[in-house]
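Notes from the 1:1 (GR / supervisor)

We went over the backlog. Supervisor wanted to see one worked example end to end before approving the batch request, so GR pasted a single chain during the call. The sequence is below; no edits were made to it. Supervisor asked that the structure be written out right there so they could see what the output format looks like.
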Amino acid sequence: WLEFRRVLFRSTIHKIILVALMFGTSIGYAKEINFKKVIKIEFKNVKKGHELRIKDENGETFYSREIQTSGNYSKLFNFSSLENGLYTAELHKDFEINIYKFKVKNGLVSYFEKSDFNVFKPVIRSEKNLLYISKLAFNKETLDILIYYKDKVIMNETMKGDGILNRIYKLSESQKGDYKIIINSENRIFKKEFTL
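Structure output shown during the call:
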C-alpha cells in the first residue's frame, strides 16, 4: 500500500509539473510569435477593390495596395529593414477595417497572436436632402461629426453610445452645391463628399 501511494504521488507531481510547464509555455507564446525577417500577411474573404495598408505606430501609411482579385489574400513581406517599433497591417473593406499588429525588433518580426480586431466604418449616404449616418459602436466609442457646405461648418455634433449610432440630418433644399462630411471615430478620420 505504501509503495502504491508513492507511485501515485510521483505520478500526480509529474502531471502537475507537466501542466505547469505547458501553461507557462503557452503564456510565453501567447504574446508574440514568428520571430522572422519575412512574414506572411493573410486575409480571408477579400474583394477586388479592398485596400491593404501597412502603417507605423504613428499611423503613417508606408505601403498601400488595392486588392486585385476576390477570395483569400496572402503575401510575404520582408520587414527586416524597418526601424524597431509597432506596426499594423490593415485591410480596408467596404464597412470595416481588419487590423493585425506586429512588432519589428533588430530586424526580426514578431506577430502578435490574437491582436486582430476590427474597426467598423461609419456608413454615410445621402438621398435627396436627407443625410443618413450610422455606425456600429460596440465599445461605447464617440463619433464626432462635422458637416460642411461650401467649406463652411454647418453642423458639429458628437454622438456616443453602445450598439448602433444613427442620425438623419435634413439639409436645406435651398442650399444646393457641394457638401463634405468628416467623421472622427476611434482615432480615425472618415470623409465623404457629395453634391445636393
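Supervisor's comment: The chain has one helix and 16 strands.
Batch request approved.
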